[in-house]
Amino acid sequence: MADGMAVSQLREGTPFRLRASGLAGTVGALIGAGGQGAAYHASIGGKPFVLKWYHPHVLEADTRLPGRIARAVERGSPDPRFLWPIDLVEVSGREGLGHLMALRPPRFRGLRDLIAAPPARIDPPLVVRARTCLSLAESFLHLHAKGLCYQDINFGAVFIEPSSGEICICDNDNVDVNGAPASVYGTKKFMAPEIVRGERMPDAGTDLYSMAVMFFYVLHAWHPLEGRAEYEVALMDAEEEMRLYGTQPRFMFDPADASNGPVAGFHDAIVRRWRSLSEGVRRLFVQAFTAGLRPGPAGRVIETQWRAALARMADSILACPACGYEHALDAEDADPDPRRFACVACGAEVPLPPRLLLGRDAVVLCQGAQLHAHHLDPARPFVYGEPLARVEAHPADPAVTGLRNLTADTWTSRLPDGTGAAVPPGRTIRLVDGLEVDFGRRRGTVAAGQSPTR
């Protein structure tokens, strides 16, 4: 097989032509090769791209592949976060096929690095992990809304910008119309139990299960079904894998069945993270890995459910002042109980900072917290991008915090005593209890910090 792959590879400098547009380009240096084909740097008119060229045996085995890519090119990307095929690539005098796609920016890291061994491991903060999941939910919502199925959601397909949670999704040549004959079964540990058992091929419903597994991995760096049952396996073979992920799958945090629960002293870090998540997100995980272990739409959590819960959680995260461990509060609690709660990692008391109440939504105003279009413009829900406001400490007194206007518009504010002031671009307004701010398209009220019950 290795010799066949070498024969199928292209030489640097080889000219190629795009089938639909007729544009000509040149093959650049090899990026890497795998089971499906090889990826190369490519140039068209001086602009950089990536060319994926398929091994001959792949085209022979997957006869639907050229048609899938041609249809993908014709319909266009369902979401900008997919590195979607731009055009089919042909090389004069050579049999075979490839496709062109955008070059992934170097700031992105493979999502697999979340569970890599140090020093390769990345450890983004909880708010970034939540926004990564939210972006994935949005991307697959748009893909499924087009009547498409991804078929093989897995670590290798997703890349993350570790400081923001921005994502890009690769390996889109498996995408097909939902219900069409599948070209792959999926990737081990991400496949729905019915696929593992050989009862079903991938579709949009099994995508939802794989997506939930991905979310659990992103937030916990662990698989949701690997509790006591996996811990007690002496030799992980095909039979044990079938039992754990196919015939007897059990969620490690199933509230009705503790038989596959976490093992004290081994899963402690997973338990801490689970306890630190918002109730809304935990509730969806329980549904996804109890009722959602069975095929059919009834138990599978859909993208809009994840999106709403993850957005709320991202807005409610604060760190323990003693050890820095991050917790998510339930933003639904508009009037939290004033009793205190303890950090799940070190047991220290964690006070609640001020919050900005925006209708039914609330944002925890920790130092460094940011507001985006999602918060300030009702017409742009779930849009983050550049921050529009940021919480900053007073340079002379870190205990005093303010909200800096990062927009080009002037806000208006009103204090509880009725006095008001303008907040021009670049200026900061002190956060005090009862402060009202008119951001232009939305109004918010600051609620003083308390210490809620967990």
TrEMBL record:
<keyword id="KW-0418">Kinase</keyword>
<dbReference type="InterPro" id="IPR000719">
    <property type="entry name" value="Prot_kinase_dom"/>
</dbReference>
<dbReference type="GO" id="GO:0004674">
    <property type="term" value="F:protein serine/threonine kinase activity"/>
</dbReference>
<dbReference type="Pfam" id="PF00069">
    <property type="entry name" value="Pkinase"/>
</dbReference>
<feature type="domain" description="Protein kinase">
    <location>
        <begin position="25"/>
        <end position="318"/>
    </location>
</feature>
<dbReference type="InterPro" id="IPR011009">
    <property type="entry name" value="Kinase-like_dom_sf"/>
</dbReference>
<keyword id="KW-0723">Serine/threonine-protein kinase</keyword>
<dbReference type="GO" id="GO:0005524">
    <property type="term" value="F:ATP binding"/>
</dbReference>
<keyword id="KW-0808">Transferase</keyword>
<protein>
    <submittedName>
        <fullName>Serine/threonine protein kinase</fullName>
    </submittedName>
</protein>
